[in-house]
Amino acid sequence: MNRSALRSLGLVIALLVLLGICLVFPRALAFVELAARELRYLWWLVLILALGIWLAFFFGRKRD
User: Fold this and answer.
1) pLDDT (0 to 100) of residue 12
2) Nearest of 20, 53, 22 to residue 35 by alpha carbon
Protein backbone atom coordinates (compact mmCIF):
# COMPACT_ATOMS: atom_id res chain seq x y z
CA MET A 1 0.00 0.00 0.00
CA ASN A 2 1.22 3.47 -0.77
CA ARG A 3 1.01 6.49 1.52
CA SER A 4 -2.16 8.00 0.09
CA ALA A 5 -4.02 4.68 0.39
CA LEU A 6 -2.94 4.30 4.01
CA ARG A 7 -3.95 7.88 4.78
CA SER A 8 -7.35 7.36 3.20
CA LEU A 9 -7.82 4.09 5.05
CA GLY A 10 -6.95 5.78 8.33
CA LEU A 11 -9.45 8.55 7.65
CA VAL A 12 -12.21 6.06 6.85
CA ILE A 13 -11.45 4.06 9.99
CA ALA A 14 -11.48 7.21 12.15
CA LEU A 15 -14.86 8.24 10.71
CA LEU A 16 -16.29 4.76 11.30
CA VAL A 17 -15.06 4.80 14.90
CA LEU A 18 -16.64 8.22 15.44
CA LEU A 19 -19.91 7.00 13.93
CA GLY A 20 -19.82 3.87 16.10
CA ILE A 21 -19.23 5.91 19.25
CA CYS A 22 -22.15 8.19 18.38
CA LEU A 23 -24.44 5.20 17.84
CA VAL A 24 -23.37 3.43 21.04
CA PHE A 25 -23.37 6.55 23.20
CA PRO A 26 -26.24 8.89 22.23
CA ARG A 27 -24.88 11.59 24.53
CA ALA A 28 -21.74 11.71 22.39
CA LEU A 29 -23.96 12.46 19.39
CA ALA A 30 -25.63 15.26 21.33
CA PHE A 31 -22.19 16.65 22.20
CA VAL A 32 -21.11 16.57 18.55
CA GLU A 33 -24.32 18.34 17.52
CA LEU A 34 -23.80 21.01 20.16
CA ALA A 35 -20.17 21.49 19.14
CA ALA A 36 -21.16 21.85 15.49
CA ARG A 37 -23.84 24.37 16.42
CA GLU A 38 -21.40 26.40 18.50
CA LEU A 39 -18.87 26.52 15.66
CA ARG A 40 -21.08 29.12 14.03
CA TYR A 41 -19.99 31.51 16.75
CA LEU A 42 -16.50 30.21 17.53
CA TRP A 43 -15.15 29.61 14.00
CA TRP A 44 -12.26 31.96 14.70
CA LEU A 45 -11.02 29.62 17.45
CA VAL A 46 -10.84 26.81 14.92
CA LEU A 47 -8.99 29.12 12.53
CA ILE A 48 -6.44 30.09 15.21
CA LEU A 49 -5.96 26.42 16.16
CA ALA A 50 -5.41 25.44 12.52
CA LEU A 51 -2.93 28.29 12.09
CA GLY A 52 -1.05 27.21 15.21
CA ILE A 53 -0.83 23.61 14.03
CA TRP A 54 0.35 24.73 10.59
CA LEU A 55 3.00 27.01 12.08
CA ALA A 56 4.20 24.27 14.42
CA PHE A 57 4.73 21.90 11.51
CA PHE A 58 6.21 24.59 9.27
CA PHE A 59 8.76 25.85 11.78
CA GLY A 60 9.34 22.42 13.31
CA ARG A 61 10.48 20.95 9.98
CA LYS A 62 14.23 20.41 9.73
CA ARG A 63 15.89 22.06 6.77
CA ASP A 64 18.68 20.26 4.92
Assistant:
1) 93
2) 22
Please state the separation of Cα 24 from the chain's center in Å: 20
Would you say 29 and 22 are in contact if contact means Cβ atoms under 8 Å apart? yes
Domain ranges of the chain: 3-60
CA distance 50 to 24: 30
* Cα–Cα distance for residue pair 28/20, rounded to 1 Å: 10
What does the pLDDT look like over 11-64, one tens digit per residue? 999 999 988 887 888 887 788 788 888 877 788 888 888 999 888 888 876 665
